[in-house]
Specification:
- This protein is of the alpha+beta class and about 240 residues long.
- The protein has 4 helices and 13 strands.
- It has a 4-stranded mixed β-sheet.
Amino acid sequence: VNEGIETISIENSNGLSGKYSKTAHSIYIEAMDGSGMGFSYNSSLKRDTNVHQLALMAAEMAKDMKKAKKIETGKYNVVITPGALESLLEVLLPSFSGEWRRKKITKLNFGDQFSEMLSVEENPLANAIGDRPHDEEGTPSRKIPLLKKGRVESFLFDRETAALAKENVDGSCSRAGYGSTPSIGHTNIEIAPGEIKSVEELGKYVEIISMHGSHTSNPTTGDFGMEVNIASLNGKEMIPV
């Protein structure tokens, strides 16, 4: 369990003065049943977590994964839970760094096209853990579209990187604490809903609940390989795989 109240103050020699406070509450529960592993977690701006329900979810997952079997080779529709999706975003998001763009490290350019079904925004105004009225340089917060219907729309800049790159854009400055230097960072990442209204439309599908290995990826090339360690094959019944 991790919870607290944080106050951020910022002042500079140009007369800027800003201050805001925020709360955060997060809980992570892990359970083991023989070789079966299960977990559950929740992050929120307030203490509204049903701990008992989270514990039951972790225990049931561990009980199910104790019976998990390897899946048959084939093509499957895949549903990725938010936690597992975060592992994939760790590989993708560095490519939207304005510093990477300035140094020609990223392979992305304005107008590059992904699937039209994918829209991704950096949104510090969302009612979530990363919300803030301004960034760590005092720039007012705003939504920044990274991908709009699959098209690369924006890169993330702080003021220094924007000046060096001769770009008239900023607002993505973060710093870990008083003793750290400002740098480019993101807050809340929002992914627009797709066309699927219910997973039942997919018929049989694999739900990926947890995977690991993103730390071995190569963000500059986009190459990655990850192991799925908690998943289920879903259709008429749920089968742990």
